[in-house]
Amino acid sequence: MDEVLFSTNDNGVATITLNRPKAINSLTYNMIVQIKEKLLLLEHDPAIHLLVLNGAGTKGFCAGGDIKTLYSARDSDEAMGNAMQFFSEEYETDRLIAQFPKPIIACLDGIVMGGGVGLSVGATHRIVTERTKWAMPEMNIGFFPDVGATYYLNQAPGHTGRYLALTASTLSAVDTLYANVADSIISSEQLVAFIDHVNTNNWHHENNVEATLEQIIASYQNTTNVEGKLASLQAKIDEHFAYDTVEEIIDSLQPDTSEFAVKTKEILLSKSPVSLKVALKQIVDGGTKTLEACLETDLIIAKNYMKSADFYEGVRSVIIDKDQQPDYQYKQLADVSEAFVDSFFTK
Length: 347
Hints:
The protein is of the alpha/beta class and 347 residues long. The chain is 48% helix and 11% strand. The two termini are 38 Å apart.
């Protein structure tokens, strides 16, 4: 079975479908390479006016990268080389999507996490549904929010990006719009009709593809007034996440007895201390960087993580043995020196 399906129609629409529904379309190295090669072809194809990006099956767009493959990197030099190559190709593909010269519609129905975020967050038209569960959950496995997430999370209001990066919180459709990581909500029921409309419109005759696409999206948009959680938490997030060290954030949360503060502190202290410190430095430093610069930094950090025992321990506890009991080498925030954090940012 082909892990990625490619198609084009006579109306000027190309479609890329991630096709590993049983694995919620998690990305393998081969999938990423195929997508990258196809993007490079479509970019210059005058017969193609826009691109649709979606995932097969009913569970979601994409649950992320194939972590089990990365986990094997500790076993051999060859597997390590493959892991390094995986990150290089993945981030390059994410960059191509973000800089694609034609509109890209990303259909983010269901689960969109990690590598799935990387593949879709740079699209021009990111469509979520009431079923969307959007997250950068890398902190849960002793890793860091990669795939250029630093760049996009820094576009979120106030210090929301820091909060999302460190807590690995899952966002609903309304919250993705609030955090500026999605653009429109269409109900999952209407999504099929919307894509059908896109496919049957003759884009060769459009003077302004972008404007027409906006009109079509508007006609299907679900103007739900369901309130997300993020907007109501903004003041608390800004109060506690304004600090540039994890220790200061924890100290700020400590005396606050609100449900948000108590729960957030508990979530943070359950993460790898190394991941917390690296991720915070990454997002603070990334505030003034371009997407390319963020992806370049991600590649350096990812390669250093492949030599970090705590990453493998995080993956073991969540994905391999599923005991949720990571025994991290660095157990306390105080155990992680500034010099050690800086080493993750060094080639």
